[in-house]
TrEMBL record:
This is Ethanolamine utilization protein. The lineage of its organism: Bacteria, Bacillati, Actinomycetota, Actinomycetes, Propionibacteriales. Gene3D superfamilies: Jelly Rolls. PANTHER family: ACETATE KINASE EUTQ, ETHANOLAMINE UTILIZATION PROTEIN EUTQ. Coiled coil: none annotated. InterPro entries: EutQ, RmlC-like_jellyroll, RmlC_Cupin_sf. It comes from the Bacteria.
Length: 130
């Protein structure tokens, strides 16, 4: 290294995070009063990331919860099962525990469940879009 060169600086990588029991006590989705859905981000754009992630819980009701995706999202079903219908295409599928789901931006999805379902999600979005 020459006398004129500045010493290299190093930045420590950000620490990883563990948030125990983040799926408990999720707030109700008040904007969907006919549905019994609960959702919360656990991590909102952490360390400047483009992603948000959290938990979505749904209990059986007669009306499905219809969600318009303004961003790409992936879900993994942890418990129960979701009955999923794309409002625009009519595509219908069942996603059960341990199934992975991808919803492309622009999808309008009707969520229902015969009894109960819990999922973890990660979305390519700003925290303000939930």
């Amino acid at each position: 290294m020459s006398a004129d060169a500045a010493p290299a600086t190093t930045t420590a990588p950000a620490a990883f995070r563990v948030t125990p029991e983040a799926w408990k006590r999720l707030p109700r989705m008040e904007e969907y009063p006919a549905s019994d859905g609960y959702i919360a981000d656990v991590y909102e754009n952490p360390e400047g990331s483009r992603m948000c992630s959290g938990f979505f819980e749904l209990k059986h009701t007669d009306e499905p919860l219809v969600y318009d995706y303004e961003y790409d999202e992936m879900k993994v079903v942890l418990e129960g099962e979701f009955l999923l219908t794309n409002i625009d295409t009519g595509q219908a599928m069942v996603a059960k525990a341990k199934d992975a789901i991808f919803f492309p931006k622009g999808s309008r999805i009707a969520f229902s469940t015969p009894s109960y379902a819990l999922a973890f999600y990660a979305g390519d979005r700003d925290a303000t879009l939930l």
